Amino acid sequence: MHISPVMWQFLVKWLHSSALFPAEASTIAPWTDALYFFLLAMTVVGLVLVGALIFGFSVMYRKEKSPVATQIEGSTLLEATWTIIPLAIFLVTFVWGALLYFRIYNPPTNAMNIYIVGKQWMWKAEHPGGQHEINALHVPIGRPVQLTMISQDVFHSFSIPDFRVKREVIPGRYSTVWFQATEAGTYHLFCTQYCGTAHSAMIGEITAMSPEDYTKWTQQSTSGMSLAQNGERLYAAMGCNACHNGSAAARGPNLAGVYGSKLQLTNGSQVLVNDAYLRDAILNPSQHITAGYAPIMPTYQGQISEEGLIDLVEFIKNLDSNYRVKQTLVTAESDQAAPSTPQPIAPQQGPGANTGMVKQ
Amino acid sequence: MSATTHHTIVNLPDQSTAELPKRNYLNNEHGLLSWLLTGDHKRIGILYLISITFFFFLGGAFAGLIRLELLTPQPDLVASDTYNKFFTMHGLIMIFLFLVPSVPATIGNFLIPIMIGAKDLAFPKINLLSWYLYLGGALFTLIALVQGGVDTGWTFTTPLSTHYLNTHVITAATGVFIVGFSSIFTGLNFIVTIHRMRAPGMTWFRMPLFVWSNYAASILMVLGTPVLAITIVLVALERTLGIGVFDPTKGGDPLLFQHLFWFYSHPAVYIMILPGMGVISEVISTFSRKRVFGYTAVAFSSVAIALFGFFVWAHHMFIMGVSNYSALVFSLLTMLVAVPSAIKVFNWAFTLQKGSITFETPMLYAFAFIGLFTIGGLTGVFLGSLGMDIHLTETYFIVAHFHYVMVGGMLMAFLAGIHFWWPKMTGRMYPESVSKLSAVVSFIGFNLTFMPQFILGYLGMPRRYHAYPAEYQVLNVLSTAGATVLGVGFLMPLIYLAWSLKYGAIAGNNPWQATGLEWQIQSPPLTENFIEVPIVDHEAYDYEWLEHKTANEVTTVG
């Protein structure tokens, strides 16, 4: 079934202006809506059919017109019909829904990543460039954005209805969702999983901006320290570099370039090093011993906040040589801040450009 | 009104001479103790009916308060914590104290032994025990309420319920735990009774479909409810002792709770709807004077729903980070479980074909059921469809969907059944025209309440929200207005049914000229149901047998 783009636009505009239909503001929204209209049509047809049968039979065979009933056992043919046709329709919706699901939950590889921490009752967004936001999220349009999310306490759920995306934010586990905004504007952000007293106040605003506006925003809102830089500090402060310093005699495995690689563990399994693995390996090291190393790393459970873990993960992600790790080890006694590194997102950022977006 | 007598099948005895049978289960014994210590399944059914009616209106009062709060976008009627307690109590009471026991424990208790020609259930004392367990569980729920309520939501989601709330979680959970055993015992009793106590000649495929659907629901009760009990115990242990099964900081898995909880709570949906479907089969057949179209398909579809119902629980968790591939499997199984429901709907519709249809109140409720259940079922397909579920889950779309199934489906079926068997239970007719009005009022009120919630859900309004953005107000006002109408629709039967206890017309044995064994005995029945063991020599819904039956009694052996 094909609908002309003009008709589609008209329909969507009309529905939206009557406040009965949400805006279509992401690349996924038209896909979701297409399935929705198919399902709606299925419901209407099904309802009209059942309604017509009941109404029709009620009129035709009411007692006045049909004083004596004719007994009918059943009909295998009819029953097969209304088994197979609904089954076929349901299977179509299954396949269609599955395709959409995989589209929504498998991010493109070039997506930019933003971290989200949910807690009773606020959303914190952490941009890799060091922009921190609360109950707000600024994103560029026309570029895929992946959110890596975790909850600090109970289940939350991150929902942007106008983008048609939603994902549970789970304590102790990263979950991800991605979208690509298409229209500049502000959109509702809801927590949709009941999370206690102020559940309905755990809301925020998504601001989708043109790429130019977005660049301007990132430059004006950075805290001056990228997440990786925060992570580097923490790395030194927690003494990680005492073991993970990359030297041949080190007691911990070399972390440079480890992100994205396949790692052999002492228990024989092979794992892909991703955000979730790094986080787990910091919190429960004994479960994640790299082959060839002794299980000597202590647990950091309860010692590092979720934001701190994100900083560490982001640092290890971007660690491609051990040069600075060793350097930090040498200068660890001095209380100098770690020197700044080039920023991937805010290229013209001056040192210490702290413009008040730091609400952490 | 002699012209209208043609339009009805109601066949009442001459009211000037008729009176209730001198001896029946209601006046066989007197005094409160004769009720509280009874082993009679009919009296226990009545005890259940009174209890669940009380809790239905209590739960309904909370629904009213919720809708009143949502009249305005601002959180202005009560504090957020209070609102959270409202929807928690509404859910707990309606699900565990009304919907789960509604049809099986009242109508099922009263009728299943009679329908299969038995004197009582297999274990009368266990039957009474299950009512006391229900009361015990209800008492704990009320204690939790009086002490200040509980705000976990009816789902007791961890770690919110275990680590973050200071309300009476343990008390309420104990209530649910105890009520669960009441349901297990009812299911057990039904299964044994249906297997072992059928009258001579009452083969499996001569049983009324109401018995089949309650049998399927009983299997779910017996196999599913223990998992809920285990889950509740784990929540309690986690909350009091911190055992860490669900706590990620101790190596536990919060998703495990979701798996365990929904392993019961999804089949529980079928526990709630299957017995209602049984009522609809009886009512549609009786008022179209026709055997149910495709009896075997309808019977087996109940069993199919019960079997498939156990393997779809993770469709409540599609957005929770379960593996994409397991989501695929659960979505597919969800689509399969929708098919038997579709089969039932079409079989009911075709039962009407070439019938001789009349439109008494139970039939109107049954029509309402079919329409509303069709909407509820088809919107369930939206939610079973993976990509669609992402946008719709946890919004008002879900709320509308399950109210269409639970209220539009089960409650309408319950009311159809109560009106249908009211003459049998009490010996008196309910007033026909006012009850027709109440069916229509409920239908209109229901759609006005819940149809706007589908639209709100697609707009993205999350469920369990105390406050909401102003642009959603119009639809919320409509919904609240509908709830008012719906409330009137539900209060009317309470009043006129109570009235009919004293002033209703004497019903006689078989006012509907129905075929079931229960209609061949006196109304209200004797304590022992049958004077002699009935011998069944015909199938269910055999209207020709009914016509040719010479005497007013079922065939009996001396």
Describe this structure in words.
Chain B: It is found in: Cell membrane; Membrane. The complex is a heterodimer of chains A (360) and B (558). The two termini of chain A are 50 Å apart. Chain A has 3 domains: 5-105, Helix Hairpins, CATH 1.10.287.90; 112-221, Cupredoxins -  blue copper proteins (Immunoglobulin-like), CATH 2.60.40.420; 227-331, Cytochrome c-like domain (Cytochrome Bc1 Complex, Chain D, domain 2), CATH 1.10.760.10. A 5-stranded mixed β-sheet of chain A has the order 3-2-1-5-8, with helices on one face. A 5-stranded mixed β-sheet of chain A has the order 4-10-9-6-7. In chain A, strands 11-12 form a two-stranded antiparallel ribbon. Chain A is elongated, with a radius of gyration of 27 Å. Chain A has 8 helices and 12 strands. Chain A is of the alpha+beta class and 360 residues long. Chain B is mostly helical and 558 residues long. Chain B contains 17 helices and no strands. Chains A and B meet through helix 2, helix 3, strand 7 and strand 9 of A and helix 3, helix 6, helix 9, helix 10 and helix 11 of B.
